[in-house]
Amino acid sequence: MLVANWMSSRLISILPDDSLPQANKVMRQNSIRRLPVIDKKGRLVGIVSDRDLKRAWASDATTLEVHELAYLLGKVKVKEIMTKAPAIIGPDDTIEEAAQIMLEKNISGLPVVNREGAVVAMLTQSDIFRALVLLTGVTSGGVQFAFNLPDEAGSIKRVADVIRRYGGRMVSILSSSDRTAPSRRQVFIRMKNVDRSKLEQIRDELTPSGELVYILDGSGPSKRLLFTEAPGRPAAPAGAAASR
């Protein structure tokens, strides 16, 4: 998934010689937490965040009277508190790469810079969350099946074919080799149109392979969570109705 397809379409920025109150006003008016700082030639020179503004407000200057503080902060330029050479991402990079950078650097947004060096947008945590929600297909409802499968050709098709026999239509498949034994994968399959009256029957048909972890039906007022009898299975989350 390319950043270009998920980044915010409207670029909101500020100039390095603008004041702190101006930056604060722009953030509040647009309900954002980070502003790319762009010079008059359109080049990215830094980024200023709400945390930068809060640090400036919490300086020794806060011992002054209100009118004195307002006057002093009005003289402080964005370029004096901004982060120079911030992390960036390109429109042809992927959402996954952007999420990794945000996680590693503990930041909530990235300026999107094209090949010509121009800032074209900001990619935020909200954009990442939106992509994740749509990728998982959770808004389509359905039933989620969690598996621990061999990392080999055909393993996903084998279990998906079982669910399809009960009317299941594929919504999404997520897979990871993290926190699994060597040559195994965690696989999460979301299916819609599954005959919910036969979830226990599906569970019983999938269980003999020892690869099913749980079935989660999120429809209705409360979740229905069916576990296998496999040793070391996780406990049912609070509020979920576990069935065996």
Please, could you describe this protein's structure?
This protein is of the alpha+beta class. Helices cover 30% and strands 25% of the residues. Strands 6-7-5-8-9-10 form a 6-stranded mixed beta sheet, with helices on one face. A hairpin with a 6-residue loop joins strand 8 and strand 9. It is elongated and about 70 Å long.
Mean pLDDT: 85
Tell me roughly what share of residues is in helical segments: 25-40%
Q: Taking strands numbered 1, 2, ... along the chain, how are they ordered across the largest sheet?
A: 6-7-5-8-9-10
H and E order? HEEHHHHEEHEHEEHEEE
State the shape.
elongated
Uncertain segments are: 230-244
C-alpha termini separation: 38 Å
In terms of DSSP E residues, the strand content is 15-25%
Radius of gyration, in Å, reads: 25 Å
Count every beta strand, where a strand is a DSSP E run of 2 or more residues: 10
Secondary structure class reads alpha+beta
Number of discrete helical segments: 8
Largest sheet: 6 strands, mixed
